[in-house]
């Protein structure tokens, strides 16, 4: 096991930023010269009950401490040790294992995830020390992400290809503008040698010659300005369209990904990628890339001109160039790590905003404003710390390059004066050299500054291509079968489904006839919602098949298939807009009469007319201007309007009062008529009219029948019914079973 440099972590056994109670506990466990590299305060025990603990990584061992300091365990560091972070459904775990077995596992809520990530970074650094000495920060859970490279920017060519002609024109204009800008220094040589110096020696000024040279200076300057303006306008036009196409392609690809992808992502992170990252790339393409290309051309063409005028003086002029290029390379390698970390931390800030702004009612209801401000401040402080380290490096690099360019000018003066004194060159040649070298080093300094923006853009491009490279787990068929004249027969044949290595649905078979209403019942976690997600093809089955009218649903185009399904959720989601727009969401071309008819059938017409602007009333973000029952009836009207042959009701009445439930039930009676319906409900009374009830337990069907039949069997359904009648829930499984299930779930993540 390799160690870290002695200055990689603060000295002393107890880190100062560890909370005081744990510092006292840790002080009793550590040797005087033992160095703490990282720690994690766990807040869950093996049974996922709240309990405090501390896991510490030192330069000698892994150490686990209890809050009472009475029980502790340690594992000496050795090459075969492995530490792995996982998270699943809001629960994180840290597992320590060797080559033979798992040694221990600690669990924590994702509130402690930053500590876990910093601990993972310390472990990674301990196992694989970096030669650069660059600071380490917390990686995302799991393997550390690859550092962004400038090669990510080359992948943008697929978006630039449609604008190839404009780019070619911009390149030609750049060449021409650069060449025109090199003319004025060249004309200073004859001005000095043929006009000014002879005049000082008593020769009269040739005004015709002066006019010719000054006219050339003016013409080249005006030409360079015009070409530069045309170049900037064309390339800015192209870059804006590349940025717009990039945003559209990323959002379009995001819409095509399965729910499995979104289950592991934060809303704020995705918003930041599509918004700020694409803007950063667009700014790079429109400004900095153009400047970079101009700088490279200017440096190359200036070097060629200098070598043409006087090779010996040119070599002296270019002497600092290799050192500057090496510094650019050295700084680039460190900046790209820093900017990637800064982007991840910025996503944390966006995530806090995406959580708290939509949930501001809950924040205020529980008086947690200070807590949320503290969360934001913590993320903001991490962003500040990372940017401080990047800025410290950059603030050293920039003056160093400037110093080297000044030294280069000094070398030109010294060597040039010596050559003039020897008669090897004229004063005009030296003057031209100084003019050219000033431009040369200005461009070199400018090019070095672009390193920062290039690495920022590369980091943004990498994060966007992380989305574009992700392949949906629900693929489209190569030759889709058209979903026409759907009768609504659903057949589930030996269906199985796994989350990772955990099987959730086990060899399930069920045949639902057209127009039949089937109720899915069972305790929480029995697989009801998973089964509905499979039928909607939000996920694909791991084994077996689901058929619609005898055709495997994987043969249908996903959008074509889902248009045949009406979905009413427990928590209906309404978009910001009017009532009419939300009802017509599935059919934007619906007429006003059709919208009103759907609202009447959903028993929503009366309360809509009582709104200030009727069907044109704004519902607010996520429908906050309406009550829960009103939102639900609008969602039912939305499902009615598309007239689907298949209807899925997922706890459509579980979160409303009895009066509202009766209103919603009337709307549902209109909705289910003549449709194949699958309904999930915890209130068993709402399913008494179902043609069949399917009782599920642990991903399997245990009973099928009508309400009265299942009660007479006195089986699983009867027990559920009695428990509900007594206003009780079925007993939870013993802790050892629950822990086994939790282990499987965490292993599967």
UniProtKB/TrEMBL annotation:
InterPro entries listed in its UniProt record: AAA+_ATPase, ABC1_TM_dom, ABC1_TM_sf, ABC_transporter-like_ATP-bd, ABC_transporter-like_CS, P-loop_NTPase, Type_1_exporter
Main location (coarse class): membrane
Residue ranges of every copy of the ABC transporter domain listed in the record: 490-723
Residue ranges occupied by any ABC transmembrane type-1 domain in the UniProt entry: 168-456
Pfam families according to UniProt: ABC_membrane, ABC_tran
Biased composition (Acidic residues): 734-749
GO MF, any single term: ATP binding
Region (Disordered): 720-749
Compartment(s): Cell membrane
Keyword Transmembrane helix belongs to the record: yes
Transmembrane segments: 167-187, 207-227, 281-306, 312-331, 392-419, 425-442
Membrane topology: Multi-pass membrane protein
UniProt keyword terms in alphabetical order: ATP-binding, Cell membrane, Membrane, Nucleotide-binding, Transmembrane, Transmembrane helix
Name of this chain's protein: ABC transporter ATP-binding protein
Record organism: Castellaniella denitrificans
Lineage, broadest ranks: Bacteria, Pseudomonadati, Pseudomonadota, Betaproteobacteria, Burkholderiales
